[in-house]
Amino acid sequence: MADDAGHGAAGAPAAPAAPGAPGVGRGHSDVTLSVNTQAAHAQKVESNVSNNNPQIEEIASLTSPRLFTPNPFSRKNTSLDIDDYFTGPRDIQKHSKWPLFLQMHGSILPKMIVPLLAVAAWASLITSIHMRVTTLQISSVLLTVLGFVVGLGLSFRSSTAYERYAEGRRYWAQLILASHNLGRLFWVHSTEPKDIPEEQLAESRKRDVLEKLTAMNLIVAFAVALKHRLRFEPYTCYDDISSLVSHLNTFALSATEDDKENAQRAFRRHGFFKSVGEYLGISFAESNPRKAVKKAGRPLGNLPLEILSYLASYVDELSLGGRLPIPMQQTTAYNNIAALNDVLVGTERVLNTPLPIAYSIAIAQITWVYIILLPFQLLSTLNNWITIPATVAAAYIILGILFIGREIENPFGQDVNDLPLELYCAQIAAEMDVIASRPKPQSKLWMESPDNRVLWPLSNSGWPVWMTRTEDKIREAVVHKVEQTFLSQSKKEAAAAAKRRPFSEKGHAKPASAGEV
């Protein structure tokens, strides 16, 4: 084990920084520890392991990122800062006690500050000229006509954007389902190799367990690789995937090793003004999300697709080796790999088929024309300085709907209201660990347990007690259980009805009427 520990400290990839270390570019974990810092970190961990839990030294490498550093599948490994507040996706596991209309995190308001200031300035200018120089009011008929057109356009934009959002969520639900099926098939249904000599049996069993764990790690790797592909992050240097695919011969790994300058560019932090501009939704400050892909100096391949090839080859070996003895198991394995491929193609379709640009431009132009003309039309009714806040309030409502549709149009990005892909990947990783945490259940062990109360709630007797009785007694008890369940439900309904009935002056419940019976 000493050799293993030494190899883990020196040869393993550098662990991500601990909380509080300097941050990196938007959407990624902290900067990798330096060699000296990593050595000190490993020394400290070794001391803690020896003092607190000596047994863990036998089962874990000292640099394991899953045990001794922040969760690699989480994008937020640092303390709360401005990035955590204005960028996303939002952590849906957190709960806010603020009233919904007062919550800022997740609101579209930060990206509306600049447009609303511009609208306020425009409304102030028009109102000032109207009040002090010359009349600028126009008929409010135009307000009604344009309002209908704007409402129609915003409704179309919002419904289309939410449809894409919901479709993206359905694909990730399909991914989680296929991951469960494949993980259970690998761990439970695939058998150990047969015809192994006695002296090689222990070695064969270890190999079987490690093969299954490797295949289940590839399922997690597919989900994480898909997340990065949907965010135009084509390399393998990210903390949540580097340890999962470092042993695979892929184009992305070759590009990461041969084009390190472009691969590391994703970890660079933006300047202050550019970051503020992105938070405020200023288009001139927003970076091209495909920059890393466009500037690649080597072929990037398709990492999720390549991972599926490795998974398919493992299923082939299981089938040819007779380790999936039932044909339906083989069919299930190939069908679920096809389901993962369907998720890959479907999510890319959602990502690469936005609303036609002509619609987006026309809806944006119509909306802004309506807002620009709004002060002129409100002056005909209000005819005073109240036109300014009224215009801003109307602009907030209209632009809010427009901006929400634009934000959720791509559900796989890093806006606050986008899908929490990190959470889905962490869920898949945790559930693969849950499946692999126990050996294949043997039905005799859990069925014949004294704690198996076969006829609960009719009886608290366990399996051994019922095995002492005849078959006729057991079947009679099953029939009696149905009758008892029906009577119990009837009593509950009668008690609930009695509670709902009004009481008489003497405190007794009045009898039920014919309708209640």
Automatic annotation (TrEMBL):
<feature type="transmembrane region" description="Helical">
    <location>
        <begin position="357"/>
        <end position="379"/>
    </location>
</feature>
<dbReference type="Pfam" id="PF25539">
    <property type="entry name" value="Bestrophin_2"/>
</dbReference>
<feature type="transmembrane region" description="Helical">
    <location>
        <begin position="137"/>
        <end position="159"/>
    </location>
</feature>
<keyword id="KW-0812">Transmembrane</keyword>
<keyword id="KW-1003">Cell membrane</keyword>
<keyword id="KW-1133">Transmembrane helix</keyword>
<feature type="transmembrane region" description="Helical">
    <location>
        <begin position="112"/>
        <end position="131"/>
    </location>
</feature>
<feature type="region of interest" description="Disordered">
    <location>
        <begin position="1"/>
        <end position="30"/>
    </location>
</feature>
<protein>
    <submittedName>
        <fullName>Bestrophin, RFP-TM, chloride channel-domain-containing protein</fullName>
    </submittedName>
</protein>
<feature type="region of interest" description="Disordered">
    <location>
        <begin position="497"/>
        <end position="517"/>
    </location>
</feature>
<keyword id="KW-0472">Membrane</keyword>
<dbReference type="GO" id="GO:0005254">
    <property type="term" value="F:chloride channel activity"/>
</dbReference>
<keyword id="KW-0813">Transport</keyword>
<feature type="compositionally biased region" description="Low complexity">
    <location>
        <begin position="10"/>
        <end position="21"/>
    </location>
</feature>
<dbReference type="InterPro" id="IPR044669">
    <property type="entry name" value="YneE/VCCN1/2-like"/>
</dbReference>
<keyword id="KW-0406">Ion transport</keyword>
<feature type="transmembrane region" description="Helical">
    <location>
        <begin position="385"/>
        <end position="404"/>
    </location>
</feature>
<dbReference type="GO" id="GO:0005886">
    <property type="term" value="C:plasma membrane"/>
</dbReference>
